[in-house]
């Protein structure tokens, strides 16, 4: 009997799959994440042995888990990667090419070369037994998403046009020719930066995508190239780094640990030039008092994305949390985007720090109504991306995308005059505010609710429709 489980990794909106046959007792995991215990639990629940870990392509947005899964299972897993375009994985792997098949009892997976998002990308058709000419499903990886498609610009500008042309042919000559009833199991859901405006359904059908997804209905190559340029969010800084990391052999010794540090030890370690201090409390707690020099990325699912985008993987991390019990989950979220070096966490959190009377920095909060009243004497900083900015903004605001602050670049504003940061909800604004504070701005405020609250209060808007 078919076993099929979809695993959604929140924050990075990554979708992986366990597929197998309970009669044969064998299964594969498609595009596993590095914290792979969930696959072992699911396999045990269904009475399955995981024999294969399959990568649809070289991932850019998370640390691939295939070789971690193999290590967890004592090496008794075949790691399958694309052999198309001959990428150098530098490890013992099984290279699959277009038309190659893997069998798990009465389930057959057939590799199909679907380049465009990356040159080597494979999709996998799923069929019953030997009926391979009538697949009932396709694991599309990062080529076709719900209402969207994979972006072709992650390998740099010099390769974007050629990849976009390959993506056009993949949509036109492969996906559009599948039967309407074929189920599509994508590699990402809504919220991922691997595609523009990905829909929120976990599974779709070829027929539905033909009706609703413009990417499958463009017959002219030039029109398609213009189409894929529109709407894609900025490329996160950690994507090129993870591309390289996912080609390297996996070492269990690099699995991260984060030791508790006393207040004295934490303070001493935080004063070293090589570390970076991450405060994971929410914006209100951070604003009320934090360790000077901290960057604030709140403990929510999107912590993975923003840690990957804003932090330096070559510098050890010191963590501050609400509660020491959150530390294992925080480490997991950060490890998913390739961080392994944790210098430690503040045992007892800010309660312990405050108990010793140590220095604090603050970031004020301004409500949207207060910000509107003070627009004349406060520098207003919009840290959203270009598309959000162009769709409407606070009048007289300065625009500087938060992602551009990662390397110490800060907006050209007066450091001695008050500045208030806003984004869509306040989450990114708090990241930006913490960086401004660390960068020497004397009076920094965050705007809780930010643009969403501004519109809810029907305050003045500049630009947009």
Automatic annotation (TrEMBL):
InterPro entries: Metallo-B-lactamas (IPR001279), Mito_Persulfide_Diox (IPR051682), POD-like_MBL-fold (IPR044528), Rhodanese-like_dom (IPR001763), Rhodanese-like_dom_sf (IPR036873), RibonucZ/Hydroxyglut_hydro (IPR036866). The keyword Hydrolase applies. Its EC number is 3.1.2.6. GO terms for molecular function: hydroxyacylglutathione hydrolase activity. Keywords: Hydrolase, Metal-binding. Residues 271-362, 374-463 form the Rhodanese domain. This is Hydroxyacylglutathione hydrolase. The lineage of its organism: Bacteria, Pseudomonadati, Planctomycetota, Planctomycetia, Planctomycetales. The gene is gloB_2.
């Amino acid at each position: 009997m078919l076993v099929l489980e979809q695993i959604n990794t929140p924050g990075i909106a990554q979708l992986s799959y366990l597929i197998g046959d309970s009669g044969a007792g064998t299964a594969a995991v498609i595009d596993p994440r590095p914290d792979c215990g969930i696959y072992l639990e699911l396999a045990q629940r269904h009475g399955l042995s995981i024999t294969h870990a399959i990568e649809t392509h070289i991932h850019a947005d998370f640390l691939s888990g295939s070789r971690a899964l193999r290590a967890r299972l004592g090496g008794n897993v075949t790691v399958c990667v694309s052999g198309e375009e001959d990428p150098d994985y530098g490890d013992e792997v099984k290279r699959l090419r277009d038309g190659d098949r893997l069998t798990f009892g009465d389930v057959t997976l057939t590799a199909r070369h679907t380049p465009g998002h990356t040159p080597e990308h494979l999709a996998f058709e799923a069929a019953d037994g030997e009926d391979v000419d009538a697949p009932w499903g396709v694991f599309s990886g990062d080529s076709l998403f719900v209402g969207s498609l994979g972006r072709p610009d992650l390998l740099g500008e010099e390769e974007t046009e050629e990849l976009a042309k390959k993506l056009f042919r993949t949509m036109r000559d492969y996906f559009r020719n599948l039967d309407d009833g074929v189920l599509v199991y994508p590699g990402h859901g809504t919220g991922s930066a691997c595609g523009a405006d990905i829909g929120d359904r976990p599974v779709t059908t070829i027929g539905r995508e033909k009706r609703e997804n413009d990417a499958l209905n463009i017959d002219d190559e030039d029109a398609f190239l213009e189409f894929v340029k529109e709407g894609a969010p900025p490329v996160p800084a950690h994507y090129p780094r993870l591309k390289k990391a996912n080609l390297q052999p996996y070492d269990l010794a690099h699995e991260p640990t984060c030791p508790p540090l006393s207040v004295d030890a934490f303070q001493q370690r935080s004063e070293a030039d090589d570390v970076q201090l991450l405060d994971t409390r929410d914006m209100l707690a951070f604003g009320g008092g934090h360790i000077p020099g901290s960057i604030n990325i709140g403990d929510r699912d999107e912590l993975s994305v923003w840690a990957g985008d804003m932090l330096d993987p070559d510098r050890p991390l010191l963590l501050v949390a609400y509660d020491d019990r959150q530390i294992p989950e925080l480490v997991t979220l950060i490890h998913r985007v390739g961080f392994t070096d944790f210098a430690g966490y503040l045992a007892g959190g800010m309660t312990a720090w405050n108990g010793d009377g140590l220095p604090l920095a603050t970031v004020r909060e301004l409500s949207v109504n207060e910000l509107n009243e003070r627009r004349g004497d406060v520098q207003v900083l919009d840290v959203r991306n270009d598309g959000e900015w162009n769709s409407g903004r606070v009048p007289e605001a300065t625009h500087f995308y938060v992602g551009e602050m990662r390397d110490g670049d800060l907006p050209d504003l007066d450091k001695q005059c008050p500045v208030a940061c806003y984004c869509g909800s306040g989450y990114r604004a708090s990241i930006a505010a913490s960086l401004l504070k660390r960068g020497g701005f004397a009076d920094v405020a965050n705007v809780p609710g930010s643009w969403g609250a501004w519109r809810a209060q029907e305050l003045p808007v500049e630009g947009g429709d």
